[in-house]
Amino acid sequence: MTITAARTLQRWRAPCENTGANTKIPMRGISQVQGGKQDPLTFSKMAGGGNDFVVIDNRGGRVTDPGELTRRICTRALSVGADGLILIEGASRATLRMRYYNADGGLAAFCANGTRCAARFAFLNVIAGRRMTIETDAGIVAAEIGEGGWVTLTLPAPYAFRAQRPLMVGDRLIHGSSLMVGVPHYVIFLRDDLWSQNIAPLGSAIRNHPDLQPDGGANVNFVVIRDPHAIEVRTYERGVENETLSCGSGVVASSVTSALFGKVKSPVSVLTRSGITLEVSFALAGGAVDSVQLKGDARHIYRATITPETLEGFDPEFVRDPASRVAVS
User: Which pLDDT score, from 0 to 100, does residue 204 have?
Assistant: First the structure.
């Protein structure tokens, strides 16, 4: 089949256009970015270990369609661009609540790098002190703000560890392990050089493997052991559907799996694709892991205001999958 000369793109209606009652608006009072009475909706661009995020104080409930907002504002080159959106909200069981959305607009139970950024955002905006608790969909996480923008998280213990979980990918048998660190992870140990390889094809195949779909697929971590206290990790992340420069829960999953196989001991320094090193510590006794902590950067890059052009004038779904948005014959 060939694409017709007159390509027909599916009609997209910008969320800020005043085109009728059925227009989908991802924020309450979008007029605040068009000179209305409400204050402009501000956001912070932050990064943790190389994962980058848009962070919004949503304690007032102004973001009403976070999935739609995420798909637009996280689109690189056409908008702010990020791996995900973080909403800071009120909580009854913790200092604050964090909701995290992957770049594709899907709600995720947990993001460790994002949680560090949420903690520092809360500290910088006087929402919390240096020590706080954060309610996530994977449980309550404790956070402590250190010097130089570094944050230490105390995490719930990983669970559902399967030491041997082989998968057939094409005609190739992949040997790996799986476990839950808030979200599902699959861990593969490599003997070859980690940095010269293109991990995306195999990462995508494993992330979408039918055997992992009961949990919605898994983040896929490729690991090389350097010494008893140092590993290197690259991660293919679901929801982003590509390799990211870092994945905090993937760093924890890789460190814990390495320890359970007797390859490393706490603490573990983890070099990520961004070149930034994170630190994982834990207690290991009788094959059980507890007292897991993740320490790393949480960088505040800039603060800005959402304007109409942040969200309108482009189709994020076309950027992600143009073939599905073009009529063919």
Answer: 97
> How many whole angstroms separate alpha carbon 316 and alpha carbon 12?
10
- pLDDT tier at 2, thresholds 50, 70, 90: very low
| Cβ atoms of residues 327 and 8 within 8 Å | yes
Q: Is 74 a catalytic residue?
A: no
Only one residue has tokens 């402009």, namely 40
The one catalytic residue in 16, 74, 111, 117 is 111
How far is Cα 194 from Cα 282, in angstroms, rounded to an integer?
25
Told to judge if 111 belongs to the known catalytic residues of this protein, a careful annotator would answer: yes
- Token output for 88: 């800071």
Q: Which residues are registered as beta bridge partners of 219?
A: 185
Annotated catalytic residue: which of 16, 74, 117, 247? Answer: 247
Cα–Cα distance, 293 to 247 (Å, whole number)? 15
Amino acid at residue number 324: S
Alpha helix (H) residue ranges in 170-263: 200-207, 248-260
Helix (H, G, I), strand (E, B) or coil at 75: coil
Hey, what domains does the chain have and what are their CATH numbers? 30-153+300-318 (3.10.310.10), 159-297 (3.10.310.10)
Q: Are 276 and 49 in contact (CB under 8 A)?
A: yes
Segment 174-221, tens digit of pLDDT:
999 999 999 999 999 998 789 999 999 999 999 999 999 999 999 999
How far is the first Cα of the chain from the last one, in angstroms, to the nearest whole number? 6
The CA–CA distances, whole Å, from 230 to 166, 192, 252, 254, 264 equal 25, 16, 13, 11, 7
Q: Residue 2, SS3? A: coil
Q: Rounded CA gap, 218 and 207, in Å?
A: 5
Residue 66 and residue 107: Cα distance in Å, rounded?
9
